[in-house]
What we know:
The complex is a heterodimer. By secondary structure, chain A is mainly alpha-helical. Chain A is built from 21 helices and no strands. Chain A has two domains: about 1-370, Sodium/glucose cotransporter (Up-down Bundle); about 375-454, no CATH class. Chain A is globular and about 65 Å long. Chain B is mainly alpha-helical. Chain B has helices spanning about 15-40, 50-75.
Amino acid sequence: MEFLSFGLVIAASIALAVYARVRRGSGNARDFFVASGQLGGLLVFFLTIGETYSIGSVLGFSTGVYLHGAAFAGWFMGYILLSYPVGFVLAPLLWQLGRRTGSMTLADIFRAHFGSRLLEVVVAANAVAFLLPLGQMQFTGLISVMRSLHWHVTPAVLAGAGAGMTFGWVALAGVRAPAYVSVLKDVLLVLAIVAGGSAALLASGLPAAYVATPAAAVPARQDMFVVSTIVLQSLGLCITPQAVAFVFTARSARMVRRNQILMPLYMLMFPFLYMIAEYVRRRGLAVPSANDVFMLGITTTLPPWMQGIVAGGCAVSALVILAGVCLAIGPLVSRNMLHGLSDRGQRVGAQVVIGVYLLLSAAGAAGLGSIMVTLNNLYYLGMIQIAPGLLVALCRWRVPPLAIAAGLVAGDGLAVGLYWAGLMPQGVNPGLIGLAANALIVAAAGLRRPACAG
Amino acid sequence: MPDTPDNASEPRSATTPLTLGVGLGLPYVLVIGGFVLFERVDGMVMGFPPAVAWLFACMVLVPGCMAVAWWLGRARAD
C-alpha cells in the first residue's frame, strides 16, 4: 500500500514539472534560471521557504532533538526563525539591486557593481565550492528515508533514480519546475508532520508529556557557540546563491518583503517534529542509525498508506532542494566562471554542469566518497564570507574589488583553518571570526578612499 | 541604502531606523535573549522545556514584529 501512495506522489511531482514547462516563458537563459522574474507571490513563497522543510531539516531536527535535546532545538529553530527578519530587510534590496544590474546570479551582482572579472570568478568559485556537499546531503537523506520502508532497492539505484528525476525536472522547465513541485512537497510534508506528531503525542500519552524536569546546567561557552552560530547562519541562509536566485524570480520587491512576514508562521509544524523525536526517545525504540528517528516515529504511528505519502513527500523534498542547488551551481559555472558563452551556451553549459554535479553527488551518497560529509560542516563558514562584499554593493559604497576578494579569501582561510584545527576561542563559531577578519579588511580598504554613494 | 518602489501602483514599505529596530533588532532580542534566559529555567510548558516553548512562541511573535515594521514603513511612505 505504501508503494502505491509513494508512486502517486512521485507521479504527481512529474505531472507538475510538465505543467511548469507548459507555463514557461521565452525559453532563454533568464527564463531558465530565474523565470524572467515573473513568478507570483505564492510560488516565490514556496520556492524560498523550501529549505525550512527540506529533508535535511525534517530528518536532522528530529535526530538532533533525540540526541541533544533543547540546546539543539534552540540553535536549529533560532537560526531559521531569525533568517526571516534578515530576509525582510535584505531580500527587497537584493531584488532591487538585481533588477538594476540585470543580475541572474550572486556573482553577477559583484561583476556589475565592482566591474571586476577576477572578483566575479572568486565569488562564483567560493559559492560553488561550498555548495558542492549539499547535493550529496540530499541523496543521503533520500536513501535514509527509503531504507526505513524496507524496500529492496540498493542505494546506488535510488541515488541514480533521484539524479535522473532531478535532471529531468530541471531540463524540462528550469527554476519553474522546483517552484511548482515545491507546492506539492510542502503540502505533503506539513500534513505528514502534523499527522505523525499528533499520532506520537496520542501514543505516548498526555501525562508523560507533562513530567517536569530540572534545567540542565549550561556552560557559558556552549551558550556563546549557540548564539554565534545562530547569528552566523541566520544571515548566511539569506545570501546563499540559491536564495538570491529565488529572490530574483519574484515579480516585485514588495511581494518578496510581504512573503517574509508570513514565513515564520510556517514553522508551526516544528512542535510536531519535536513530539515525534520525544516519542521515539521515551518509548526507547531501537534506532538503526541517527538519521532514522523521524521515519521510525512515522512507521510506528501511521498506517502504511500514510507512510508512503510521507516517504514520497521526503523524497520530493530532497529532489526539490537538489534542483535549487543545481540551478544555482549551473549558471555560476556556465555564466560567471566560463565567461562569454552565448545565451544558449549558458543554458546548455549549465545543464552539462548540473548533470556532472548530480552524478558526483549520487556517487558520493552511494558510498563512493566520504569527504563530502566533512565539507558540509563548512557550508555556512564559506557562504557567510560573501556578506561584506554584498553589503558594499547594496549600499553602493566604493571599495576596491581586490580588497573584497582578499577579504573573502582571508575569511574563508581563517574560518576553515580554525575549524580544521578545532579552535573556537571563547566558544565563538569560526565562521564568525573569519567574517570579522573579512569585514576588517574590507572596511580598512574602504576607509582609505572616500566612501560616497553612487 | 535606496528603497525605491518596484511598482508605482503599489504602496511601498520604507526601510527606516525604526522599522529596522522593530522588524530586525527586536526579533533577535526576543529569540536569542529569550532562549538564553529560559534555558536556565526548570520545569515544562505544555510538555516542552521552557526554552523550546519560548521559541515556539517566537514563531508568532517574530512575524508580529515584521508586520508592525511593515505597517510603520507604509505609514511613513504614505
